[in-house]
Design a protein that fits this description.
- The structure is a homodimer of 230-residue chains.
- Chain A has 230 residues and is an alpha/beta fold.
- Chain A is built from seven helices and five strands.
- The first copy, chain A, has a five-stranded parallel sheet with strand order 3-2-1-4-5, with helices on both faces.
- The longest helix of chain A is centred in the middle third of the chain and has 16 residues.
- Chain A is globular, with a radius of gyration of 17 Å.
- Chains A and B meet through strand 3, helix 3, helix 4 and helix 5 of A and strand 3, helix 3, helix 4 and helix 5 of B.
Chain lengths: 230, 230
């Protein structure tokens, strides 16, 4: 039977998911962390995820490889697609950016659902965010609600009455609020990586949308930014 | 922009999905076949899928590896889980069998959705079946409807107004009706594989649920069963 004390946490190793992992651990969940290694450009994220999992003393950390380059179609999985740079902050979120990966969160939540069911967990935690969501359709609350309905119909545990939940503690927080929340829980953001274009020493570019949102978040939170920039 | 003439077909190489591939091709679709190689016990299915794709002259056939053994929890992905044998036919479908793979169709449809979006296709074809569905929750029409709603919210093409559809031409057919349909379209069922426990020469066991349903289907259809049994 699925247990509400067990939770799968989708942990990319970025700022948001690392905060979510700390929140789930602080709520007493037995955390089964799942990192999807989808051959994104940012391989440093995987190392960051391992560190975050270790620090949060998760019950299990599974790194699941899946080669989304076979599909292509995104700046994160296809080197022929250009990432946007130096976009004005007030333009971010108005259109779907080149970093959009087709159906990414649906693929990730589906894998998390399969993983959860084998572990007897009925909760999946994910760091989606509506306010700073950078224009991704699969970070909206109506999308999450639809996925939960699908998950309840899709699974043996759902048919048997498990209360499948997707926990999105960051959904309505600004990046600054996320950073304050994580800081209050002791998250070491120097471990996390967010940049879409880290160099081979794990240093951030400071110019992609992800960097721009992260930088502004630290400024607005009044927390020193520990990110190594090149 | 997504095109309704392009379709992703989930092609396992089994009887059902091979029939679906033939139906999509017969309706004039430009077929982008997607075979998920999930390290199931039945590796012969992959070879069957290649043959079926070739015969149907698909535009593209992508074999996508994903190691669901990392999750385990099913007789198809975990050698410690026993398959049921010689189950009375009227018992099949009353409970969810050991061959259930947690969240399998959600994972497969999510991957198909990502693939479809990169190819500009708004249709996904899948061989789910309600009548002979063997007790899998993710073969029911209400599940498919929920997934479509999720897909429309999940994707850039959905946000931009593409009419995302999941085509399930076998949903209400019996196995015998599926075999008659495929036979009328020239499907060569000797190419297809269905058994959960093929031997190393690709011969079927004749005793697992999948074999029992397939055998009965040929009998009821009055079509000679070309399946090689051991």
């Amino acid at each position: 039977m699925a247990s509400s004390s067990k939770a799968v946490v989708l942990l990319s190793g970025g700022l948001d998911s690392s905060t979510v992992c700390a929140v789930a651990a602080s709520k007493g969940r037995e955390v089964h962390a799942l990192t999807i290694d989808y051959n994104q450009r940012n391989l440093w994220e995987i190392n960051a995820a391992k560190e975050v999992a270790r620090v949060n003393r998760v019950a299990e950390h599974l790194i699941f490889p899946i080669d989304l380059r076979l599909f292509g179609g995104s700046a994160l999985t296809d080197s022929s697609v250009e990432l946007a740079r130096d976009v004005p902050l007030d333009e971010i979120g108005k259109t779907i950016p080149a970093s959009y990966v087709p159906a990414r969160n649906t693929i990730f939540l589906s894998l998390a659902l399969g993983f959860a069911e084998t572990r007897g967990a009925s909760e999946i935690w994910i760091g989606v965010n509506q306010l700073d969501y950078s224009g991704y359709p699969d970070c909206r609350p109506e999308y999450i609600d639809a996925f939960v309905k699908t998950a309840r119909l899709a699974t043996k545990m759902g048919v048997e009455g498990a209360d499948i939940k997707i926990e999105t503690p960051l959904l309505y927080l600004t990046k600054a609020e996320i950073i304050k929340l994580g800081t209050s829980l002791g998250v070491d953001y120097s471990l996390t990586r967010t940049c879409y274009d880290l160099d081979d020493q794990g240093r951030a570019c400071g110019r992609c949308e992800s960097c721009l949102l992260r930088k502004r978040g630290f400024e607005e939170a009044g927390v020193p930014d520990p990110t190594p920039y090149r």
